[in-house]
Amino acid sequence: MPNTLAYMMLMIWPLVTLWLFRRLSIERAILWSILAGYLILPPLAEFDLPLVPDMDKFTIPSVAAFLVCVLVMRRPVPLWPRHPVVRLLVAGFVLSVIPTVFTNSDPILFQVIENSDPIIFLTDSLPGLRWRDLGSVMINQIIVLLPFFMARQFLSTETGLRELLLALMLAGLAYTIPSLIEIRLSPQTNVWIYGFFQHSFEQMMRSGGFRPIVFLPHGLWLAFFMMSSVLAATALARAAQGGERLRLAIAAVYLFWVLVLCKSLASLAYGLAFVPVIALAPLRWQIRIALTLALVAIVYPMLRNLGLVPTDAILAQAEAISAERAQSLQYRFDNERVLLARAAEKPWFGWGGWGRNLIRHVETGQILSIPDGRWIITFGAFGWVGYIAEMGLLAAPLVMLSGEARRKGVLEISPYVAPIALILAATMMDMLLNATLIPFTWICAGAVLGYAERLRYPDFDHPNRTLFGGAQAMVTQPSTGRRSVM
Q: What are phi and psi of 109, to 5 degrees?
């Protein structure tokens, strides 16, 4: 159980956010209010309020940053992208929950039937979704997209993109301190600070040592975050000059060393694959690789449904590396198979919330399947429509960026946007294995989308395009970072 400090931290975070916006630039305030909230606030602790989504370490920083930005700082945040396809995806992401709710009004009953007598004993049930649940689900979908909208507006400039990578690197460097402590002493930071352990301790034991977890949901989340920090430091080192390049390169090497100690094969593989790409490959190739990975992540469920994913061959390769890894991967594939069969019963709009998409014992209601990948969670809960909307919103910025890179030429593309696109694509690939979609992922997607829109639409910051009134007084050009008065 979370202690009093855990709930106090959640309650005071809006005040921390206000302080950040008062002291920092708009770019840094958005980044640090959301990123620091993800890294510092307690996992699992939440405020369960009526008619609204649960308020936790994911929702509170996003809502607080948005409200302070719009209401206190008077900086408008448009909620309507320029490209018609992205508009359709945003509308689908928010509105597709309507048919999901109305097609899941029936409760799911778990019961024991006595054969000798026509008697049915009700043992448990899952409630059906009602009209009042609709508001909560739609509000949650909007909250999820708030970092996306803020990043699109304020982090899509040359300055914003660099600040994004810098924040990711600095946060990773700071997080190495508690991570190294946990690698040496065992993962206890959350117990020491917030009074509880947030996951299975056994899963934090690997290769005769420990995985760090600190305040994140799982050690795999921390390893993936550390990998993202390595990529950010590598990108900054490549773009830097002189002594600064050397310092940033040393930071990247140090972060990679900590990544190895995190004992996550997938994140380490991403690091080994993408660090050379960011350090050496031309920007156009970085963008092409990011787009290719995103497309693979999108079509994976379709191939899985058709039985075209060579799971046996993948398991054989994993077995050659580690029997423990192969066993874990086998468990994921087995769960995917049964959950796909469950999702096939309601393929278009899914089963909705309350764990209705999971496999349960017909008599006791005990959960028999654990979904790991974000894709199978979304697919089971919201069906094909919800899945396409979510993955489409993450992939659309990469598609647009690739198109603008071909149209404008690579010389006009920022050296910071391609690495962010790769981090976004790596997250989409990791979502096939883990539920690693976090607010910072939406920040990356929004920043890339906004940058591509700035290249495509010269009047991106036109005052008529804002939603909450007022016009931007200054516009930062995407490729040069120069400011011009509107």
A: -100, 140
CB burial class (10 A; 0-12, 13-18, 19+) of residue 169? buried
Q: Distance between CA 204 and CA 218 in Å, rounded?
A: 8
pTM: 0.91
Sign of the Cα pseudo-torsion (26, 31, 36, 41, in order) = positive
Helices 242-261 and 158-185: crossing angle in degrees, nearest 10, is 40
Name the DSSP class of 69: I
Q: State both tokens at 275.
A: 């660090």
- pLDDT per residue rounded down to tens, the chain (486 residues): 899 999 999 999 999 999 999 999 999 999 999 999 999 999 999 998 877 888 999 999 999 999 999 999 999 999 999 999 999 999 999 999 999 999 998 888 777 666 656 676 666 778 888 887 888 899 999 999 999 999 999 999 999 999 999 999 999 999 999 999 999 999 999 999 999 999 888 888 887 899 999 999 999 999 999 999 999 999 999 999 988 999 999 999 999 999 999 999 899 999 999 999 999 999 999 999 999 999 999 998 888 877 788 888 888 887 777 777 778 788 888 888 888 889 889 999 999 887 888 888 777 778 888 888 899 999 999 999 999 999 999 999 999 999 999 888 767 789 999 999 999 999 999 999 898 999 999 999 999 999 999 999 888 775 444 444 444 434 444 444 433 333
Q: What span, in angstroms and rounded, lies between the C-alpha atoms of 214 and 198?
A: 9
Cβ atoms of 312 and 64 closer than 8 Å:
no
Residue 331 is which amino acid? Answer: Y
Hunting for tokens 């593989």 — which residue is that?
269
**10: Cβ–Cβ under 8 A, 6 or more apart, which residues?**
41, 42, 45, 46, 47, 55, 56, 57, 60
CA atoms within 13 A on the CB side of 180: 11
Question: Please, is 446 exposed, middle or buried when counting C-beta atoms within 10 Å of its C-beta (0-12, 13-18, 19+)?
Answer: buried
Which residues are 111's β-sheet partners?
A: 122
* Angle (nearest 5°) at CA 62 between 402 and 391: 35
* Strand stretches in 36-96, DSSP E: none
Contacts (Cβ under 8 Å, ≥6 apart) of 409: none
